[in-house]
């Protein structure tokens, strides 16, 4: 396991923080009915005031592509959030091993969020859709059972061929997906912190 303190700051003594929530009120009218407000709570990319600690799990299969997702996440997170951050990096053999480690990490109480990154391909021997579904279902169960946000960058392309064009395309695609996971991570943590702080929803 390797850890990375993105801003090089001490993360001891973490405190709760309020998340930035944008609340919009939409008035809707219909025939013979009075207007009524729809309360929409939009958890935009927030400015967190408390330190953030994330576990990032990577599958080692297709590491040249999966590693781009990890790098995209690590590059985007400090750009979006100036608060002190620590990202602990973990590796597992393949995607199928990610949910169990994610559950152990979530239950440790050390992390605000967990990200799992893998590329699941059709090996021609078994139906890779079953593996992909089991992984995503497992990760979903982890966050529902532990109340720790778990984000998936586990992708299953319909068609993949190991030639240069596909390699380059998916390497670039994983950078994008890693950056998207960083944004989603901040939004999810903001939502959880807001609820814990008693912000009306």
What do these coordinates show?
The two termini are 38 Å apart. This protein has 201 residues and is an alpha/beta fold. Helix 1 (63-80) crosses helix 4 (164-196) and helix 2 packs parallel to helix 3. The protein has a 5-stranded mixed beta sheet, with helices on both faces. It has helices at 63-80, 98-107, 128-146, 164-196, and strands at 2-5, 22-30, 33-42, 52-59, 85-92, 113-119, 150-155. It has a single domain, classed as Lumazine/riboflavin synthase (Rossmann fold), CATH 3.40.50.960. It is built from 4 helices and 7 strands; from the N terminus they run ββββαβαβαβα. Helices cover 40% and strands 26% of the residues.
Question: How would you summarize this macromolecular structure in one to three sentences?
Answer:
This protein is an alpha/beta fold and about 200 residues long.
Topology diagram in text:
Layout: E1 2-5, E2 22-30, E3 33-42, E4 52-59, H1 63-80, E5 85-92, H2 98-107, E6 113-119, H3 128-146, E7 150-155, H4 164-196
Parallel strand pairs: 4-5, 4-6, 6-7
Antiparallel strand pairs: 1-5, 2-3
Helix pairs in contact: 1-4, 2-3
């Amino acid at each position: 396991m390797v850890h990375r303190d993105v801003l090089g700051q001490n993360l001891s003594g973490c405190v709760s923080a309020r998340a930035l929530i944008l609340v919009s009120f939409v008035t809707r009218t219909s025939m013979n009915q009075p207007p009524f407000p729809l309360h929409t709570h939009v958890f935009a990319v927030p400015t967190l005031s408390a330190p953030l600690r994330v576990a990032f799990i990577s599958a080692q299969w297709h590491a040249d592509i999966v590693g781009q997702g990890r790098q995209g996440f690590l590059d985007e997170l400090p750009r979006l959030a100036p608060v002190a951050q620590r990202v602990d990096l973990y590796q597992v053999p393949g995607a199928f091993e990610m949910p169990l480690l994610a559950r152990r990490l979530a239950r440790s109480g050390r992390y605000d969020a967990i990200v799992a990154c893998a590329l699941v391909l059709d090996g021609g021997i078994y139906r890779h859709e079953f593996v992909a579904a089991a992984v995503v279902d497992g990760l979903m169960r982890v966050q529902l059972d532990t109340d720790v946000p778990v984000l998936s960058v586990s992708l299953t392309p319909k068609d993949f061929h190991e030639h240069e064009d596909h390699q380059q395309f998916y390497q670039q695609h994983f950078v994008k997906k890693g950056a998207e996971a960083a944004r989603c991570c901040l939004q999810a943590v903001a939502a959880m912190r807001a609820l814990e702080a008693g912000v009306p929803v």
